[in-house]
Design a protein that fits this description.
- This protein has 481 residues and is of the alpha/beta class.
- It is 42% helix and 19% strand.
- The protein has helices at 2-7, 11-16, 18-26, 29-49, 55-74, 100-110, 133-140, 151-163, 184-191, 206-212, 239-249, 276-281, 307-314, 318-321, 326-338, 342-348, 350-356, 359-375, 434-442, 469-480; strands at 82-83, 118-119, 124-125, 144-148, 167-171, 177-179, 182-183, 194-198, 217-223, 253-258, 286-290, 301-305, 379-385, 388-391, 399-408, 420-429, 448-449, 451-453, 456-460.
- A hairpin with a 2-residue loop joins strand 18 and strand 19 (456-460).
- Bound molecules: pyridoxal-5'-phosphate (PLP).
- Residues 150-152, 155, 178, 182, 223-224, 226, 256, 258-259, 290, 301, 413 line the site of pyridoxal-5'-phosphate.
- Pyridoxal-5'-phosphate (PLP) is lined by residues 150-152, 155, 178, 182, 223-224, 226, 256, 258-259, 290, 301, 413.
């Protein structure tokens, strides 16, 4: 054994060999050395355990292993994923895809200097917070606007500026957790505001708010219950009524809209999501929403409303801590530009496009996915009888695939009750388990994330774009073997 151990080449000789030369143009040198060390160690372990028994075996393993380890080591952590879940605004999968105009503008701004904080006409220092404001005012009619890193930051800086040390009245039915670590009561505590909950979980009346007003009330806050809906014996107070109450007592009213839709979804048959423009018309003092939910842009928090309040927020010491980056600004500005014509926005902004896609378009993509799959070796068609799938047995079959009608979700804490009619490719693996298939799909390149329905893997064509279809089919095929 010790003889074979001596046959392991030294790290130094491996790095000097012809075979590693190619790596040097592809990977950083220290990464190559690290990979070589790792492989040498694992070969040594192999010899000691008796799995590697000869000089030949050492040389057969060493270079392919180095290559593999290098590839694993240098893989980026943030990668493309195919979203086959049908959840349009999938927070875990990066929420919104950018429009073409937004992508091009990011590329344009990312690679060069810009007037991020420079006034070109005056030839002197300018302000970061003027970008995008023109479009936001134009689209929403808001008197002023301020943009921060995300909506959580927008809520935090607003509460801190307007109501630190003062009471903020909020309905118990709206003390929501958005997901991750964003819980309304926690954010409020962090902002220095004092939580004053009113009403009950299911019912809050206007008089509950009125009775809670004291000398120390700093703000009345309404929060969109984004990701859940109460139904049955429920009552909440409309923003208009809160605005009137606020006026009566001279207390500002804020609405955390969460998603923040800039178009009227009612016109497109989707009820229940208030548009930013309508909420502004209610006379609310200030409102905030995300840039990457229904708006379909980059991660951002947008604050709209009265000039006096926004001016104070702008001057907050927190503003620097939650400020927006130039890449985000460039993406957001181009996204907002697409909204100047709402019809154009629906066509050009991927989030809106996926949300409002016509069933016949989705069906077309689902059919194409199925057709390409059935061309592959080992795929067999599941006969669709209504919505029941019956499969034909055959030993060569690795998976059955069929097309069914189903429902997708908006996601991103928007429209939790709305089921969007869609078409999906359903898969039933035959040689491996469903869980195994799901795991393997996650380690493909690109990884595919679908959803499970009973004993089927569902690939929802709503969130799969035309250009992803080929690689989706490849990933599924590779995962099945
Ligand atoms: C999503 C959401 C937030 C947090 O927004 P981010 O942009 O994710 O920071 C805050 N409030 C509500 C009501 C939300 O739906």
């Amino acid at each position: 054994m010790s003889e074979i151990l001596k046959d392991i080449p030294s790290v130094d000789s491996i790095i000097k060999s012809d075979k590693t030369e190619r790596y040097l143009s592809l990977y950083p040198r220290n990464l190559i050395i690290k990979a070589i060390r790792e492989v040498v160690q694992s070969i040594r372990n192999g010899i000691l355990k008796g799995t590697i028994k000869s000089r030949e075996e050492i040389y057969q393993t060493i270079y392919p292993e180095i290559e593999k380890v290098l590839r694993d080591m240098s893989g980026f952590s943030l990668r493309r994923v195919i979203n086959a879940t049908g959840v349009v605004i999938h927070t875990n999968l990066g929420r919104s895809n950018l429009s073409e105009r937004a992508i091009n503008n990011v590329i344009n701004i990312a690679g060069s200097y810009s007037n991020l904080e420079y006034d070109i006409e005056e030839g002197k220092r300018g302000r970061r917070d003027i970008h995008c404001i023109k479009w936001l005012k134009e689209i929403t009619g808001s008197p002023d606007a301020f943009i921060v890193n995300n909506n959580a930051a927008a809520v935090l800086i607003s509460l801190n500026t307007i109501a630190s040390g003062k009471e903020v009245i909020i309905s118990r039915g709206e003390l929501v957790e958005i997901g991750g670590s964003f819980r309304m009561p926690d954010v409020m505590r962090l902002s220095g505001a004092i939580l004053k909950e009113v009403g009950t979980t299911n019912k809050t009346h206007l008089h509950d708010y009125r009775n809670a007003i004291t000398e120390n009330t700093g703000l009345i806050l309404k929060v969109h219950t984004s990701n859940f809906r109460l139904s049955g014996f429920v009552k909440s107070v409309e923003i208009e009524e809160l605005v009137n109450l606020g006026k009566e007592y001279n207390i500002p009213v804020m609405y955390d809209l969460g998603s923040g839709c800039l178009i009227d979804l009612n016109k497109h048959g989707i009820q229940g999501e208030p548009s930013v423009i309508d909420v502004l018309r209610s006379g609310v003092d200030i409102l905030s929403f995300s840039g990457d939910k229904l708006l379909g842009g980059p991660q951002a928090g947008i604050i709209l409303g009265k000039k006096e309040l926004i001016d104070r927020i702008r001057k907050s010491p927190l503003a620097r801590a939650v400020r927006i980056d130039k890449l985000t600004l460039s993406a957001l500005e181009a996204t907002l530009f697409d909204y100047l014509d709402p019809e154009n926005a629906i066509e050009k902004i991927p989030t809106l496009r996926a949300l409002l896609d016509k069933p016949e378009n989705i069906l077309k993509r689902a059919k194409k996915i199925l057709r390409l799959m059935l061309k592959k070796r080992g795929f067999a068609s599941m006969k669709t009888i209504g919505r029941n799938l019956t499969a034909v047995k055959s030993d060569d079959v690795i998976a059955y695939a069929g097309l069914i009608e189903d429902y997708s979700q908006a996601g991103g804490g928007a429209l939790p009750e709305i089921n969007l009619k869609t078409y999906v490719v359903a898969l039933r693996p035959r040689k491996i388990s469903l869980n195994h298939l799901i795991k393997r799909l996650q380690s493909q390149n690109p990884p595919v994330v679908g959803r499970v329905k009973e004993d089927l893997l569902i690939l929802d064509a709503r969130t799969i774009s035309e250009r992803e279809i080929k690689s989706l089919v490849e990933s599924v095929f590779n995962a099945l073997f």
